[in-house]
Amino acid sequence: MNRNSDDAVLLRAVAAGDEGALRVLFDRHGPWIAARLRRRCNDEEVVADVLSDTFVAVWRGARRFRSDGEPAAWLWGIAVRRLVDRLRRHEAPTPFGAADLDAHATPLASAEEEVLLGVEHGDLGSALGRLSPELRAVVQATVLDGLTTREAARLLGIPQGTLKGRLRRAKAEMRTALVTAGGGA
Amino acid sequence: MSTTAWHADAALLGRYLDGAADLSAAASVEAHLISCAACRERLAHLSPAGDLAPAWARVVAEIATPRPSPALRLLRRFGLSDADVVLLRAARALDGSWTLAVIAVVAFAALAALSNAAGGRALYLLVAPLVPVMGVVASFASFDPLDDLTAATPYSKARVALVRAGAVCVTSVPVVVALGVSVPPIGSLAFAWLLPSLALTLFSLLVMTAWSPAAAGTSAGAIWVVVVAVAHRADEAAAAVDPRLVPVYLTLAGAGAVALAVRLTTAPGGHR
């Protein structure tokens, strides 16, 4: 094990009780996990707690990592579920960042971003961009973070029924947007 | 997910870090980061340095702390305070060797009941009610590593007694009942001893407020031996747990509980 080792190798070392390997993983993955958490919760204290909980969970559960999976995806799965747990425990008010709500006011941006979306998501990107902030938050939690409806409802602080309703509406709106865009192209 | 040639540029990563990227751009970045180690590394360089140090310090502190057993973690989830967890962890009567000893002794008594109905039942009846008593006594005996500490801190003696006695009963009673039920000749005796055992446990806790745990254990044990011996001589050991005696044991348990409560509240400095 050294600083350039593969993530899977590092996880095996962590499973064997190597604290140095955990440190390397933390340095490598801590920053982006923290950044991703910050987009879902604007309380810096909660983000720091969830980040350390995540790596404590990695320390204890590294042997549950299946070596055929993507380590980064596995780490994010742990982190986002820790975030859900943490928000449920403390009954925090829905802690979505101002950016998510402001996004509504500034519809979509530069040509550069349009190009990026063309590459990454195509028409889906602009369809996503047209959703209202509540619907986007639901899509983000269920589709992008892969949470179950119950976990997503907990994260967003809304009842499960409401969440399912919003998810249906989001899908319908995006379908309409995609059909319209497809017809125009 | 992502095309191989594409990478998030510094401007986009910067907007993402500032929370200025909208959801679709952010989603693209996030999807890409999962599979691209190079972009993860560049994002780490763009992040403000050092702000993750407190989080890492917490990780180190957390993994250096020994974890309580799964049973204690479960209790903590149900609202047991950290102080009580420490108290339970220090109670020697709750560790594995004690549980093994309980199983061995009760299994021996249960086997005796299989071979010789009358004498074996007497033996089981002699052993079963004393298991919780001995557990409680053992959890207060002087090899408690926290003895000096608990004596010197204003931690309610009644709470110490209740938490430990409760824990001992929860761990030992199911073992004894299960072994009793699994041996047919024991029959209703598998449960019948619970009430006398409650009375004896309360009695030994009461005695411990004045005398040493050893004296409390010995006297409770001696009383029970006498009761079972008398019952065995007169008729059959099971007479010691005859349904007609239920009011007697209930009265004794109630009196013991009241006396214990009075002792613990009026003489908080008394010897445990």
List keywords for this structure.
heterodimer; A: mainly alpha; 10 helices; B: 272 residues; 15 helices; 0% strand; disordered C terminus
Class derived from helix and strand content of chain B? mainly alpha
Give, in order, the helices and strands of chain B: HHHHHHHHHHHHHHH
Number of helices of chain B: 15
**Shape estimate of chain B:** elongated
- Based on CA inertia axes, which overall geometry of chain A fits? elongated
What's the Cα radius of gyration of chain A? 19 Å
Helix content of chain A: over 70%
Greatest interface: A-B, 52 and 39 residues
Low-confidence spans of chain A: 97-117
The termini of chain A sit apart by 52 Å
Mean pLDDT across all amino acids of chain B = 72
Derived from helix and strand composition plus strand pairing, the structural class of chain A reads mainly alpha
DSSP strand count of chain A = 0
Outline the structure in words.
The complex is a heterodimer of chains A (about 180) and B (about 270). With about 180 residues, chain A is an all-alpha fold. Helix content of chain A is about 70%, strand content about 0%. In chain A, helix 4 packs across helix 9, helix 7 (about 125-130) packs across helix 10 and helix 8 (about 135-145) packs across helix 9. Chain A starts with 6 loop residues before the first helix and ends with a helix. With about 270 residues, chain B is mostly helical. In chain B, about 70% of the residues lie in helices and about 0% in strands. Chain B has 15 helices and no strands. In chain B, helix 5 (about 70-75) runs antiparallel to helix 6. The longest helix of chain B has 25 residues, at about 155-180. Chain B is elongated, with a radius of gyration of 29 Å. Residues about 270 of chain B have low confidence and may be disordered. Chains A and B meet through helix 2, helix 3, helix 4, helix 5 and helix 6 of A and helix 1, helix 2, helix 3 and helix 4 of B.
